[in-house]
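Intended use. Records like the one below are meant for learning the mapping from a protein sequence to its folded structure. Do not use them to infer anything beyond what is encoded.
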Amino acid sequence: MKVNQNLSILFWVWKDKADETGKAPIYVRLTIEGVRAQFSMGQKINPTQFNPKSGMLRGTSEDAKTVNNYINLVKGKIQQHYNILITQFDYVTPEMVKNAFLGKSDHQKTIIDAFTYHNEQFEQKVKAGLRAGASLVKFKTTVDHLKKFLKKEFNLTDIPLANIKHSFAEDFEHLFIRFK
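Structure written out for the chain above:
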């Protein structure tokens, strides 16, 4: 069952990384269930202009407005990526949100990936006469049952291998027996 997770987005200035002009980078810290990930926003500012409570720049100068608009844009896009990820996975990590925002391909291996790989390898063995074709049919049927199980129990089409718990196998076995 999907557990509700809360995403926290914090913008902060890393003063220790200030350059020779005194400007420091703005960092984004993502926190979910106490686990953190952070990355630079790609903007440098004078640290005295930053209000840590609001996560925005103080003042109404054109630079402050531009950076504040960018902060709001980044926050919105991060939230958007998070919302997409929670529809695809039972458990979302801050690293997953960070990678989605940064456009990094961090495809996690899923159970359907594993079964598909296995079945492709097994099919090669069947073609070579090393395995029985009836076994391949049973493996393909298992994938169909697995997809039904994921849809019925979790309203998902797939699940990362890292998110599979022992109870998943027991529940699947129970449902698989009902299908026979």
